[in-house]
């Protein structure tokens, strides 16, 4: 299928919320990881979201170039072409963008999509994230309001973060403390500033103890009941059931029970990065160890071209990552839910 149109993306999000499942949002940093993610969604019969961070976009432009916009545009162009060959819908998203990178990442990409829409085309990306977790809530929402007007005009969904995710990702680091828990007051301030969809659609990452990084299952102490409390209390004031379209960040190390509880409380998108990075790299490492004398020219020998051909270990890496994407679909209940099913 072609990359999801704005209308298809909206239908995807609505279906997830109505049927209480969530889409894995898979971070990619290369054509190989992109292919692996799409394959994983297709094999699971799930539509899905593929996203690129500022660091991933820099890498995609060329490690010595480090142009986030070029890297993101290149990824999107590649995705628009290869996604046509798969039977599921794929939405493209840009991940965490802090204040100091807005002018070098999200805003230029928004301008590109706005020009495309003016020409009667679809936007390049279907959603963009503004990460205002490092600034005061008032400033966070002021910037979000400005960006929401632009995303709405370009037929794009905005993602915001209200609260703080602990740990570190792409140079954005936060301590693990009480700030990891969003409050009802934060939720009320959000709808007061941004509305409930009439000013443009947005996704909200409310934090409930989330931490980026590598953790063993059970090591991250999540409180998904916070999501229920905010949805219920804000919803009661608005006369609307589950008013927020929620995003789950920092899910590595979460238990299946915690993940399912978050989904039941309105999470429709869950970011997956650390686990899929490992799932991609582990088979590549296994190939190197088991084909040691083939991938290296040991003791003056010539090695084995079939062993060191990047496609040899690349296929194994992609298969490993695709399986982990399928597992994420199963955990989030999106398996078999494609709009095309």
TrEMBL record:
Residues reported in the UniProt entry to bind dihydroxyacetone phosphate: 213, 250-252, 271-274
UniProt-listed Pfam families: F_bP_aldolase
PROSITE patterns: ALDOLASE_CLASS_II_1, ALDOLASE_CLASS_II_2
InterPro entries for the chain: Aldolase_TIM, FBA_II, Fruct_bisP_bact
Binding residues for Zn(2+) 1: 96, 212, 249
Biological processes, Gene Ontology terms: glycolytic process
Catalytic activity, as annotated: beta-D-fructose 1,6-bisphosphate = D-glyceraldehyde 3-phosphate + dihydroxyacetone phosphate
Any one of the GO CC terms: cytosol
EC number from the UniProt entry: 4.1.2.13
Top-level taxon of the source organism: Bacteria
Molecular function terms, GO-annotated: fructose-bisphosphate aldolase activity; zinc ion binding
Annotated cofactor note: Binds 2 Zn(2+) ions per subunit. One is catalytic and the other provides a structural contribution.
Annotated pathway: Carbohydrate degradation; glycolysis; D-glyceraldehyde 3-phosphate and glycerone phosphate from D-glucose: step 4/4
Annotated positions binding Zn(2+) 2: 131, 161
Requisite cofactors: Zn(2+)
NCBIfam families registered for this protein in UniProt: cbbA, FruBisAldo_II_A, PRK09197.1
Known function: Catalyzes the aldol condensation of dihydroxyacetone phosphate (DHAP or glycerone-phosphate) with glyceraldehyde 3-phosphate (G3P) to form fructose 1,6-bisphosphate (FBP) in gluconeogenesis and the reverse reaction in glycolysis.
Family classification: Belongs to the class II fructose-bisphosphate aldolase family.
Name of protein: Fructose-bisphosphate aldolase
Originating species: Kribbella jejuensis
């Amino acid at each position: 299928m072609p990359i999801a149109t704005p209308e298809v993306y909206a239908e995807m999000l609505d279906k997830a919320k109505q049927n209480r499942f969530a889409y894995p949002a898979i971070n990619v940093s290369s054509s190989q990881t992109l292919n692996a993610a799409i394959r994983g969604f297709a094999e699971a019969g799930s539509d899905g979201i593929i996203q690129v961070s500022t660091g991933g976009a820099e890498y995609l432009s060329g490690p010595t170039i480090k142009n986030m916009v070029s890297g993101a545009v290149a990824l999107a162009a590649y995705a628009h072409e290869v996604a046509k060959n798969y039977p599921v819908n794929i939405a493209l998203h840009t991940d965490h963008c802090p204040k100091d990178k807005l002018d070098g990442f999200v805003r230029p990409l928004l301008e590109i999509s706005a020009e495309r829409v003016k020409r009667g085309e679809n936007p390049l990306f279907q959603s963009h994230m503004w990460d205002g977790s490092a600034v005061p809530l008032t400033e966070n929402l002021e910037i979000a309001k400005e960006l929401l007007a632009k995303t709405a005009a370009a037929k794009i969904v905005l993602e915001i973060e209200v609260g703080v995710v602990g740990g570190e990702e792409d140079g954005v680091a936060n301590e693990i403390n009480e700030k990891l828990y969003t409050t009802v007051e934060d939720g009320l301030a959000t709808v007061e500033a941004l509305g409930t969809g009439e000013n443009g659609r947005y996704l909200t990452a409310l934090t409930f103890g989330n931490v980026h990084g590598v953790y063993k299952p059970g090591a991250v102490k999540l409180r998904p009941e916070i999501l229920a409390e905010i949805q219920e209390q804000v919803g009661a004031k608005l006369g609307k059931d589950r008013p927020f379209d929620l995003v789950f960040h920092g899910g590595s190390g979460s238990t299946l029970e915690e993940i399912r509880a978050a989904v039941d409380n309105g999470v429709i998108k869950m970011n997956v990065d650390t686990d899929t990075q490992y799932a991609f790299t582990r088979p590549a490492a296994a190939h190197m160890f088991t084909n040691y004398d083939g991938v290296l020219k040991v003791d003056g020998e010539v090695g084995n071209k079939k062993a060191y051909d990047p496609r040899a270990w690349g296929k194994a890496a992609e298969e490993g990552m695709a399986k982990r994407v399928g597992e994420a679909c199963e955990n989030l209940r999106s398996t078999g839910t494609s709009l095309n099913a």
